[in-house]
Amino acid sequence: MRVDQQPGYILHARPYRETSLLLEVFSRDHGRVGLVARGVRRERSRLPRGVLQPLQPLLFDWIARGELGALVAAEIASAPFALAGDLLFSAMYVNELVSRLCARNDAHPLAFAAYAQCLDRLAADEPAGWTLRRFERELLADLGYALLLDRDAADAALLPEQDYAYDPESGARTWTAGDGRMPRVSGAALLALGADRTPDAAQLAQLRRLMRSVIRHHLDGELNAWTWARPAAPPTSG
Amino acid sequence: MSSSPLLADLVEALRCLPGVGAKTAQRMAFHVLERDRAGARRLAERLAAAVERIGNCTRCRTFSEEPLCALCASSTRERSLLCVVETPVDQLAIEQATGYRGQYFVLLGRISPLDGLGPKELGLDLLAQRLAEGEVQELIVATNPTVEGEATAHMLAQLARAAGVRASRLAHGVPLGGELEFIDRGTLAHAFGGRQVL
């Protein structure tokens, strides 16, 4: 099957064989796909090595067969997201998240749109933490793991001043001392995330812990971007 | 092939080399058995010796048989300049192409969460220690101009700043003998942005 002019982003590229690259691509209509860019590392390659980079909106042509497709052409769709410094780590975190959570060849058009919006917001220098939380919310929802953010597990409305323990399987319930291992998060923070209202710094820190625990639950593992103890600066990625 | 399990093993083992598939591995195996057993013996000895004895320099992490590589041990290299590269091959390229007289630090990779490469795997603690010694005046960041290379460069710049060391980055731009018409737009934009006073 041939796919033409498919919008997408490279999540990751690794060397493959002598002169090829193995690309992990997040595409609009086919979800995450593995594509082989043959001979692209040779000096005079037909494929444009310079543009086969993450954070560059591209249009891909490929021939799908079996697990890996063969990249036929790639062209620039628009200017790359201008990210530098710490924002690069945020973008790498997002790429790892998508690679690890999305199964191959499973279309997630809403998550795809949220991904582009997330990179757009990072490039526009909106606060990185809140931008990442919003993307995580959209991604989880499109994958069928939507968080319950207006009602608790017993279907009662969340109270802003109440603290909750959030169980990834069933939702929020009133926090008690015995819930030490669950993330403790205020109703106000959950409601803010649900209503897409900018939370304050304390709420944002709670949401970060909440999301990490929910993602850990669905991944059944850790993301590498989390485990880095950054030597010089505090992490901005997770 | 079923006639000799050893032969099948050999073919399988040869496939660990880059660019060697089933067909090539088979040709190699038959070649050494038919025509060059002495060469094969020498290769086997060299491989075993190399794998056994070549480790990493304790100071710059490049490949070395001694705890200190020749470059780090040399008294003629300037100790105030430290060039950080991704791989030993990059180090060799700079060594051959430039008149650089300083020392190196080899990351053996670049920041890439999806490959499981973080600051620890790249030996950044060792580098921070080296910068803290106070000998290094300038850190020359020679990671590749890719997204991962840029992220790595950013992290190195932070390390340098924390240690009060000046950090510089290799220039990107128009290749020598290139024609502007044919250069990709990204490179041209970089070259334009990084233009220098004549």
Automatic annotation (TrEMBL), chain A:
Entry keyword annotation includes DNA repair: yes
Family in the record: Belongs to the RecO family.
Residues annotated as signal peptide: none
Gene it is expressed from: recO
Species annotation: Dokdonella fugitiva
Role: Involved in DNA repair and RecF pathway recombination.
The DNA replication/recombination mediator RecO N-terminal domain, residue ranges: 1-78
GO CC term (a single one): bacterial nucleoid
InterPro entries: ARFGAP/RecO (IPR037278), DNA_rep/recomb_RecO_N (IPR022572), NA-bd_OB-fold (IPR012340), RecO (IPR003717), RecO_C (IPR042242)
Database matches in Pfam families: RecO_C, RecO_N
UniProt keyword annotations, A-Z: DNA damage, DNA recombination, DNA repair
A biological process from GO: DNA recombination
Protein name: DNA repair protein RecO
TrEMBL record, chain B:
GO biological-process terms attached to the record: DNA recombination; DNA repair
Record's keyword terms, sorted: DNA damage, DNA recombination, DNA repair, Metal-binding, Zinc, Zinc-finger
Higher taxonomy: Bacteria, Pseudomonadati, Pseudomonadota, Gammaproteobacteria, Lysobacterales
Family statement drawn from the similarity comment of this UniProt entry: Belongs to the RecR family.
Zinc finger feature spans (C4-type): 57-72
Superkingdom: Bacteria
A matching Pfam family: Toprim_4
Protein name, as recorded: Recombination protein RecR
Recorded GO MF terms: DNA binding; zinc ion binding
Function: May play a role in DNA repair. It seems to be involved in an RecBC-independent recombinational process of DNA repair. It may act with RecF and RecO.
Domain Toprim: 80-175
